[in-house]
Input
Amino acid sequence: MRTAFSVTIKNLGQIIKVKPEETLSQALARFNIPLRFDCGQRGVCGKCQVKILKGQVNPPGRQEKYILEFLKVDPSIRLACLTKPKGDLEIEVPSESLVQSVKILEKGVTTSFPYCPSLRQYLFTLEKPRVSSPSSLVERVKKVLALPELEFPLDILNQLGEEARELPKKMQLVIYQDKEVISLEADSSPTPLLGLAVDLGTTTVVGELLDLESGRSLAVASALNQQIRLGTDVITRLSEALISEGKRRTLQRAARRTINALIHKLCQKTGYHEENILEVVIASNTAMNHLLLGLPIHTLARAPYTALFQYLPEEKAQEVGLRISPRGKIFLAPNIQSFIGGDISAGLLATRFFEKSGRYLYLDLGTNGEIVLRNKNRFWGTSTAAGPAFEGVGLSVGMMAAPGAIYQVSATPSLEIKTIGRRKARGLCGTGLIDILSIALQKKWLSQNGRILLRERQIKLTPQVALAQDDVRKLQMALAAVKAGVKIVMAKAELDFDQLDGLYLAGAFGSELNIANAMAIGLLPAIDPAKVYFVGNASLAGARCLLLNYTLREELISQIKRINFLSLAREKDFQNIFIKSLNLSPYPEKE
Amino acid sequence: MDEKQKQQLWTKMKEAVIKGDNQAAVELAKEAIQLKLDLTETIEKGFVPGIRRVGQLWEEGEYFLPELISSAECMKQAMAVLQPELTKNKDSLETKARIVIGTVEGDIHDIGKNLVSSMLQANGFEIIDLGADVKLEKFIATAQEKKADFICLSALLTTTMTGQQRLIEMLKEQRLREKFKVVVGGAPVTAQWAESIGADGYGENALAAVRIIEQLTRQRREK
Output
């Protein structure tokens, strides 16, 4: 008998030694080849497929045959955890069989994480019981799957009983987090396991449909939050909800309808059925998640702005009214505190904020500006009421980033503008506003205190679009709110700006934001521009992380407890710092 | 000191307030005391025109919050020098009205309210500032105790501005509505809101608040 066989992995260009009696999966694991064993090498998930190119192996047993037939794979495919070589081999490990690292952010920080979804499908044959060991069907399923704690809801139990009229039978079980049976089928065809990541924003809602077996993104869709007609900002909606329980329910229905419409759109795009979606993860601010659940918000609406909950276990999606599989689950990214919600915790997760040590600032700029700072092992977080000016709301020339919005202005030296969709300019959106402020300062059309110095008291971009004095004042206030917040948080952490290792920018401003201009007017601190990372929709990315790896949920819940919450209004110097920050000038100020 | 010299001094005082030059304002106030000038006249013809001009510059868009605050601070420092002398001479500057001001309960934002407070003070009103997150009962109790003329309520959130409405209802319930003028303000507050809750006045900004309160004070006297 040979002491080892040599197995050549063609596609990886690697040769490994396999001991007799050792399975291919054990050998691959020994050589650190990251093969997928969703079931932990129990031969019930069918994920560790390898292709045998040359050489002899043991013939497949009944269980393996069942899985291979069920999954309709090529005859040369075998399951590594059930296959032992009988001589030297040549094999191929398809990329689908390797543990996928899921890329988190499209841009900014390129990080990835191992993949571990809540839902797994297990395939096995339920044998005919023998008189000699008449243990219950449930106990036998638990034994086959090696999941002694597995829970069977009553209706699943009923199904199991019905199916057991005739045994043996080929079963397909979908199990949630290795503890609860979600669905049970017999002799059916493979069903897709889908998940949905949602960024439930105050204005925009984005949904991404994902295949939970491969981690692949299937489609992305977005829609306006239907709550908008009940108020454009969070506080207005909270005050609506305060009026009566009826109003609260109306807001809940609007949020629910928005998500359900997105689900419908995504299913139409991809040809899948709503029932195929088994889990939804939602990243949203504190007000949005309270309203979606239809919870009372009295404590959140008034000082000291206390949320009803910080985090919840997974709930039944049906109870929240989401139209997915009746057994589907919903998980909400945990709220950090008060108005620093799950949208921020998700964003922090996506940027791996808690992992790498160092000094980092995370800024999410929207109607509410959220600021989280890490100084090595200490964390601070705050939220600052910037108002909607950055989104172009409330300004005479402002508009959301929609066709016709000026998103870029340059001075070459005459003013040149770029509009979204190359349409005729209708107004300015956030990035365009930042550009024109900076250019006007440079050209001395604007003084640092925000006074328009031109005789016509406005800054004309086109015959129709002109920035008025009052617009500048509103932008100054929004800028000062963020600037003061950042300054106070940095001071609390006793940190100088040049000590920062990086600044993550999420939220309203896309990568079209001109960093130099943003620094010139004091929207961003003047640090090395190479240290500024646009992270785009980090909330959605975070929701995707939580969906594709459920073990991150508990981890995130424990990490966010490290953040010290700061209430700016309670800070003694806030007013002084805010007033000083109104100047349109770079910060930190040079000595 | 002849009239021309006085005029020159007043112009300097006015300029100091407009520029927000605390040091100059304090020096000028001391000079007025040394020269044994009529201090009431000094204030009214020197410093007050300064703060009035600041108000104009604000309305014209020339000045913004930082300038407004530094001018109000400048005024306050000059008054701090003059006040003890006025008291010593048993001369008292006529207080236009006594005002109880604060941000309503449930709301911790107070920058806007502080500004209104400073501007009112700079314009010669007596201010009792209760701070932020103030219980509605406390506004009424203080106003009664101090025999105030006005209750000014700030609210920065749509969720808390209902406190302004509630206070007016409470005044009515306690048959005190006629005793105090109620003026409201804050970012989400509008003239329509003020009218709908039956407030006596509304200030869109600090200067507008001063204007409406001055107007209401005059009306009150004329009665």
The longest strand of chain A covers residues 119-126. The longest helix of chain A spans residues 245-270. DSSP finds 16 helices and 27 strands in chain A.
